[in-house]
């Protein structure tokens, strides 16, 4: 009995230590999601009003509308995440958990794809007609809605069992070899594409700055390339940390006995949602 009592006390002490160590990451998660929900919603509303007033029909407008739709879907999932971190339990069912978790990844990679498309369009000075751009964007949305999303939901979060009241605990799936390979591939592609675009964009900005110096700010070409670099900065700040840490987390997953790395991974994942604040930055750029 004494031995059992000592083991029980040790378990309680261990649980208390884990709970105490997780208080700060949980607080960071809550703050990040509240800020992103408020700022992202405000940015979507303000940018929508700007587009409605201007009634522009440019290629950039179509891209921005795609970003607004992506951000809107992601913002709708944030209240569910906040409720989980505030209440400490999931109350919306297993499918809703998988959907809310999948949305944040779909949003991240789809947003990065739109950013890359904007940057490439400006680098290559593509002057596509609106109908062609709309057709390509519509095809991408159909592919995502009818193929990518259903396939993801069919496999994501289904390979292991989970407790009824827990959510966002899909780290156990890293025991599967195909999940590890998929994560490595996604991280490698994003980092490689971002590195190439950054190098090319900085080179172009340097050449344009040298060409028009010292009145660089008065030239449309320089301002356009500077706006493109803004999307690269968002990627570097919001997406890159998550993927770098993700690789580290996968390699050290077996050593994460107290789930500290899991919480840090969730913080870096929450950081990716900060990209929805890009609309506020865009509004500020338009105002100036």
Automatic annotation (TrEMBL):
InterPro entries: GP183-like, GPCR_Rhodpsn, GPCR_Rhodpsn_7TM. Residues 39-282 form the G-protein coupled receptors family 1 profile domain. This is G-protein coupled receptors family 1 profile domain-containing protein. The keyword Hydrolase does not apply. One of its GO terms (molecular function) is G protein-coupled receptor activity. It is a multi-pass membrane protein. GO terms for cellular component: membrane. The keyword Methyltransferase does not apply. Pfam families: 7tm_1 (PF00001). It comes from Zonotrichia albicollis (White-throated sparrow). Gene3D superfamilies: Rhodopsin 7-helix transmembrane proteins. It is found in: Membrane. Keywords: G-protein coupled receptor, Membrane, Receptor, Transducer, Transmembrane, Transmembrane helix. The chain crosses the membrane at residues 27-47, 59-82, 102-124, 136-156, 181-208, 229-248, 268-287.
């Amino acid at each position: 009995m004494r031995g059992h009592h000592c083991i029980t006390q040790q378990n309680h002490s261990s649980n208390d230590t884990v709970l105490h160590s997780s208080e700060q990451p949980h607080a960071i998660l809550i703050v990040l999601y509240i800020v992103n929900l408020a700022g992202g919603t405000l940015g979507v509303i303000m940018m929508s009003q700007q587009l409605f007033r201007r009634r522009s029909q440019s290629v950039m407008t179509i891209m921005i509308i795609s970003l607004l739709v992506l951000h809107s879907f992601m913002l709708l999932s944030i209240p569910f995440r906040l409720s989980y971190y505030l209440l400490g339990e999931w109350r919306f069912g297993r499918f809703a958990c998988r959907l809310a978790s999948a949305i944040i990844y779909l949003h991240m990679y789809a947003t990065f794809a739109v950013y890359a498309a904007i940057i490439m369009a400006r680098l290559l000075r593509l002057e596509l007609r609106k109908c062609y751009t709309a057709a390509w964007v519509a095809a991408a949305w159909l592919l995502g809605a009818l193929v990518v999303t259903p396939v993801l939901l069919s496999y994501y979060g289904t390979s292991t069992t989970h407790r009824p009241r827990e959510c966002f605990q899909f780290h156990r799936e890293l025991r599967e070899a195909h999940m590890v390979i998929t994560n490595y591939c996604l991280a490698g592609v994003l980092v490689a594409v971002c590195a190439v675009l950054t190098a090319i964009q900085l080179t172009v900005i340097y050449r344009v700055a040298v060409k028009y110096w010292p009145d660089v700010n008065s030239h449309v070409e320089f301002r356009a390339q500077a706006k493109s670099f803004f999307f690269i900065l968002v990627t570097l700040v919001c997406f890159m940390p998550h993927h770098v840490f993700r690789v580290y987390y996968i390699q050290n997953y077996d050593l994460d006995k107290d789930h500290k790395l899991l919480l840090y991974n969730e913080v870096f994942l929450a950081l990716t949602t900060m990209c929805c604040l890009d609309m506020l930055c865009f509004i500020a750029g338009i105002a100036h």
